[in-house]
Amino acid sequence: MLKVGMFTSGYQRNPLEHCFMDAKEYGYDYIELWGGRPHAYAPDLKAGDINEVRRLIEKYEMPVLGYTPEHNAYPYNYMIGSEAQRRDAIDYLKLSLEMAKEMGAEFVLTSPANGGYLATYDQLWSRLEKNIQELGDYAAKLEIKLVVEALTPYESNFFTRANDLVELFRRVDNPYVVGMCDIVPPFVQHESIMAYFDKLGNKMDHMHIIDGENGSDTHLIPGEGNIPIKEMLYEMKRIGYDKTATLELVTNYINEPRFYAKRAIDNMRELMAEAGIV
User: Fold this and answer.
1) Per its UniProt record, what InterPro entries does this chain match (predicted)?
2) Got the DSSP string for 104-155?
3) CB-CB contact of 56 with 62 (8 Å)
4) Where are the chain's structural domains?
5) What is the pLDDT of residues 94-129, one digit of tens each?
6) Which residue, 243, 239, 233, is CA-closest to 205?
7) Fold of 3-274
8) Is 133 left (phi over 0), alpha (psi -120 to 50) or beta?
9) Of 47, 162, 236, 252, which sits most exposed with the smallest number of CB within 10 A?
10) Structure pTM?
11) What residues are labeled active site?
């Protein structure tokens, strides 16, 4: 059965407890916890905030299956900058893997961001391979999955397609390093969403399901953009995808995250029912 999760980035101006309270009340299956301040920044978790996360998991009986540390811009981006900056980002993500393990999460999500305008593909791939090899080895040691996400061209200048994931897995052979599909990147690039399933095979381990519009990477509530989500869900049912799918509302609805988190799951459940997923 497809598991539907809540992403917590849009709640960053609300107390963290609202995320767990709402996820439970609105009918989400799990939480994908955003790792930024004020809620779940890995160094803060290490300093003691992990106890609050575990308390909320237990109080609301709402598991955190995924942990998504913030690392696509400031101050961490392992694809750009000096070796010292790269090392700092990798150490931060290793700590994120440790904290994810402590909260009982199944995976940590990483996405290779923009590597800078002057970098060549050879330089970018060399750096990414080194990063994912090291992080993947650490994930294997902790026995937690490292899920790698392709981004839109608005976010990354080289890691944006299913084929980029295929190439990464050719270079890094590690069962704990897996892939996913955020459905906005393929949609805005006129790429096939379903091709991710064919190309990645058993490495296709997670999804971000949201709606979108051509020409923008804005993440919209399912059913309120231009992506044919009902038909996609039907195809997902046909191929038997039954893993995790987070409704990744980020900051587009930050003014009223509780309103829109409810509308998102209500729309998603309706679309699932129409596609025959019950």
Assistant:
1) IolE/XylAMocC-like (IPR050312), Xyl_isomerase-like_sf (IPR036237), Xyl_isomerase-like_TIM-brl (IPR013022)
2) T-SEEEE------TT--HHHHHHHHHHHHHHHHHHHHHHT-EEEE----TTT
3) yes
4) 3-274
5) 999 999 999 999 999 999 999 999 999 999 999 999
6) 243
7) TIM Barrel (3.20.20)
8) alpha
9) 47
10) 0.96
11) 149, 248
